[in-house]
Structure prediction request, 300 residues.
Amino acid sequence: MNNELVSVIIPSYKRSEMLPRAVKSVLAQTYKNIEIIVVDDNDPDSLWRRDTEKRMNQFKNNRHVKYICHEKNKNGSVARNTGIKNASGSIIAFLDDDDEYLPTKIEKQVSFLLEHPEYKAVYSGWIRANKKIIPTHQGDLSYDILSGNNIIYTNVIMMWKKCAEEFGGWDESFIRNQEAAFLLRYFDAGYKIGVVSEALVIFDITDRSNAAANSIVNEKQMMQLINNYTKAMNRCETTKKGSRKRIICSRKKGILLSYLKDKKYKEATEVLIEMLSEYPVCFCWTMLKYGIKRISGKNY
Prediction:
């Protein structure tokens, strides 16, 4: 039995009632050499801070649990960096306060890292809305992430702490797409990610209060990701010519659909004209594939 300490970082913001379930799911792991770092990102004078403090009292005598309070609300990326700075473990993992680990999550991912030293991070599958998602891709997944073809959520990531420290941890300028930026930093540093092809995390989708903003903000945030990680974009283009335009078309398709969903037809038309002007064949093919998948009932 190995003895690597795993630090699980749980930021919490306005979900105090769900937080204890997340903490307990980590305490119930089959792998026992753990510490849990709860980072309270609520404003100090808020009802959420007071309620979070009250609920965390049940863990105050548990040696596996650390409770850290920010002096003000800063955002999830900052909270996770706070967790990394305070982590004693050589391995770090992440969990959102409204979700939970299945019992063997840590054990199986630690085993993978120790058995596959060529990978400095690993992710897994998950369960969302009673549907299991089982990923198989591994390596440098920059293209998958930039294009949105492979979403790797925060909760399923495990990584050696020294690697996260080396590339600077979480990009604190990001409000959304935080895990995408985090992983692109990881790949930019020359690392690859492995996969445990099992569902090891359960997502709770009942509370969407921290969900994505409106379509206008969505476009701004998505283009922030594309514009800030040009190194990853260039690496994809070098590996496979045409990657850049496929990434842009894929993301602009999502932006277009978001505008249509919000009934912002002027903005949707502007995106359509832009893409038909710049990448007419690629964008039409992207939209055609999307339409075929919708008609056939396949997940997209």
Observations:
- The mean pLDDT is 94.
- The longest strand covers residues 193-203.
- Residues 26 and 101 are 6 Å apart (CA to CA).
- Strands lie at 6-12, 34-40, 65-69, 91-94, 100-101, 121-128, 131-133, 158-160, 193-203.
